[in-house]
Amino acid sequence: GALYDQRRVDRATGALRRLPWLKDVLEPTIEQDARTGRFMLHYTVEESRSTSVEGGVGLVPGIDGSYNWVGRFCFQSDNLAGSGRGASFKWERPDVESSDLAILYREPWLLGQQFDGAIGIAFKQRVGYMEAGVSASVGYRPASDSQVTIDVERQSLRPDSIGARSFRQGTWSLGWKVILDRLDHPRFPRTGWAADAAVKWDRVRADDRTFNRGRYKVHSEFYVPSGRRSVVSLSANGSGIAQRGVVGPNALVRVGGSQTIRGYMEEHFLAEHAFWVNLSWMRDLGRGSRAYVFGDSGLLRVPESGWMGAAGYGLGLIVQTRTGLMAVEYGLAKEDA
Asked: What does pTM read for this prediction?
């Protein structure tokens, strides 16, 4: 056996508590095997519902007075059949003329080492063009709270029935990403911080030219308790693109909606560079539920308009149900005030 090291035990306990499919991990106890006399650490864990299914359908009014439907369906599992493997299927129709489809599979502990791999396919349809891509990535964990990932992606962009021929492109992408996670819980953190940074290099081949393109994305989040049952969270984000000449709409940063600046419709802005912060005050309601208020603000560089500001605010509720987490948010943009 190995000598007891409390620091290694604390790191192992923290790594277990960050696993998304474990709801609770109690402090370890030291037990002695009656046959061999050897001492071992014993962890008592409670598994969470690692599979989630969510969906929704909505109606939006058309110009002619009729209604069109939009919707979203997402299946995600972080622990298929108790193996630690992950898979996700996501279909979304954010507006009448757009749709997304993404399928991803993740394999942990490649070759019995601290590597994990993932493969995925994605399809996007927007006004004027359709985009299809396949990706593969390999990640390495030098420590329980950090990961380095390298990914390769191939994308093909073609015009739809109303698109211009100039939209036809083929792209090879190579990127890397670094993640640091010091949060005390993967879903309901009360203290700690996390950060990640990613850069990607694209080699784009169009009908009339071949050019390079660079992309970046950074994210950080901090959690500080403000009482026995309250938490303040702050996240800072940035994303952008560097390319000579005119940037096509497929490469622009999509801002707006629940993942960026709340209060706006999904993909309300198409920007070359976007920086925004999200501030929330959360109140724990017990049994894995939280109520919160939020305020988001950002600075965007939009083609042909230059730099502009955006802000939104609102409130939300996260409830733990028998089938998983349910989240509801209501937000308003500054233009709605």
From this structure: 0.79
